[in-house]
Design goal:
By secondary structure, the chain is an alpha/beta fold. It has one domain (about 5-339): TIM Barrel (Alpha-Beta Barrel), CATH 3.20.20.70. The protein has 14 helices and 12 strands. It has helices at about 5-15, 70-85, 95-100, 105-115, 130-140, 150-155, 165-175, 190-200, 215-220, 240-245, 260-270, 280-290, 290-310, 330-339; strands at about 30, 45-50, 50-55, 60, 90, 120-125, 145-150, 180-185, 205, 250-255, 275, 325. Strands 4-5-6-7-8-9-10-11 form an 8-stranded parallel barrel, surrounded by 6 helices. A two-stranded antiparallel sheet has the order 1-12. A two-stranded antiparallel ribbon has the order 2-3. Strand 2 and strand 3 (about 50-55) form a beta hairpin. Helix 2 packs across helix 13 (about 290-310). The protein is globular. Ligand FNR binds next to helix 1, strand 7 and helix 12. This is Isopentenyl-diphosphate delta-isomerase. Involved in the biosynthesis of isoprenoids. Catalyzes the 1,3-allylic rearrangement of the homoallylic substrate isopentenyl (IPP) to its allylic isomer, dimethylallyl diphosphate (DMAPP). InterPro entries: Aldolase_TIM, FMN-dep_DH, IPdP_isomerase. It comes from Halobacillus dabanensis.
């Protein structure tokens, strides 16, 4: 099977796998406030997260981009939507394009489509400093994501098995690259122990990439003759993972299973500063096209601003710490891990 075909399969499986019946964002209820004091039309959603100047807390998260013409077309369309809506966008892993020069145009298109936009480069934690710099140069990125995906690799028959150098690689990149570097999970979440270790090596930005949306155990198991189905529910749900970051002082992005602007607002209430969406945006693009995705982004912004209105939050940062209650699994998680 060609690499391009494998990436198309990846996308198909990512969009079609069975979702969890329960979304953990439903375990959070923001407490309604009756007395609004702001003007909806004056609400600001542009913001600063550390050194990142973003026009919205929402961004398109990394999705496989390189390979063939079909994945290039997806990258082009996502970049166009990001440009039209002003949101940030992460490209998918650039590792294969770093190794195969002929794939680079399938990423470079993102910068061509959106010359002024905020774009995140993306590499795996196997990347050397030189490879990370190539990824940034390829798309003149504004920030760099390094993804960590141990379980996905372990399920993939051709996946990596030796992770002895990973922490050193991350440390080298974080200490040498001038741009903000975000260490991100891909759907298994980050624990407070992981966060502490990342902090010790100088990491300042993370994307918790929690469980609850695109599930790479299921995606990779669909490609295996003998699946490791017992790992299909492994990982820290996104809201629990945001709670795990409490008090760390890191800049936290949330992703994994965010379905709409209300989920995004809940992530901000729990302590994240921005939120990424991958699978649910790609599904709209593939099924309904570019214009529908532009409308969807506007709808997500509108929903988030409705929550800001209800909480009297004039800017997204003011959502942090608004009153909420936790239910069910997330409450149990909080009681046993955080309290
Ligand atoms: C991804 N994701 C991902 N992440 C990453 O860091 N590098 C990558 O190359 C990819 N590739 C990729 C392909 C496809 C088709 C999807 C749907 C996702 C993971 C993504 O950025 C995100 O962390 C998870 O998908 C969780 O978010 P959602 O999909 O639940 O919103």
């Amino acid at each position: 099977m060609s690499r391009a075909q494998r990436k198309i399969d990846h996308i198909r499986h990512a969009l079609s796998h069975e979702r969890e019946l329960h979304n953990h964002f439903d375990d959070i209820e923001i407490i309604h406030q009756s007395l609004a004091r702001l003007d909806f039309n004056q609400l600001r959603i542009d913001m600063k997260v550390g050194e990142l100047n973003l026009s919205s807390p929402l961004f398109v998260n990394a999705m496989t981009g390189g390979g063939g013409e079909e994945t290039k077309a997806i990258n082009r369309d996502l970049a166009l939507v990001a440009r039209e809506t002003g949101i940030g966008m992460a490209v998918g892993s650039q590792m294969s394009a770093i190794k195969n020069v002929e794939e680079r145009h399938t990423y470079a298109i993102v910068r061509q489509m959106n010359p002024e936009g905020f774009i995140f480069a993306n590499v795996g934690s196997e990347a050397s400093l030189d490879q990370a710099e190539q990824a940034v140069d390829m798309i003149q990125a504004d920030a760099l994501q390094i993804h960590v995906n141990t379980l996905q690799e372990l399920i993939m028959p051709e996946g990596d098995r030796n992770f002895t150098q990973r922490l050193d690689n991350i440390q080298r990149i974080v200490s040498s690259i001038e741009l903000p570097v975000i260490v991100k999970e891909v759907g298994y979440g980050m624990s407070m122990e992981t966060i502490e270790t990342l902090q010790q090596i100088g990491v300042r930005y993370i994307d918790v990439g929690g469980r609850g949306g695109t599930n790479f155990s299921k995606v990779e198991n669909m490609r295996r003759e003998r699946p490791f189905a017992s790992f299909n529910n492994w990982g820290i749900p996104t809201p629990a993972s945001i709670l795990e970051t409490a008090g760390s002082g890191l800049h936290v992005f949330a992703s994994g299973g965010i379905r709409n602007g209300l989920d995004g607002a809940k992530a901000l209430v729990l302590g994240a500063e921005g939120f990424g969406m991958a699978g649910s945006l790609l599904r709209v693009l593939v099924n309904d096209g570019i214009n529908s995705l532009i409308e969807e982004v506007a709808h997500i912004h509108h929903e988030m601003k409705m929550v800001m209105m209800l909480m009297n939050a004039a800017v997204p940062h003011e959502l942090k710490g608004q009153p909420y209650i936790l239910l069910g699994h997330t409450k149990e998680w909080y009681d046993q891990r955080i309290q």
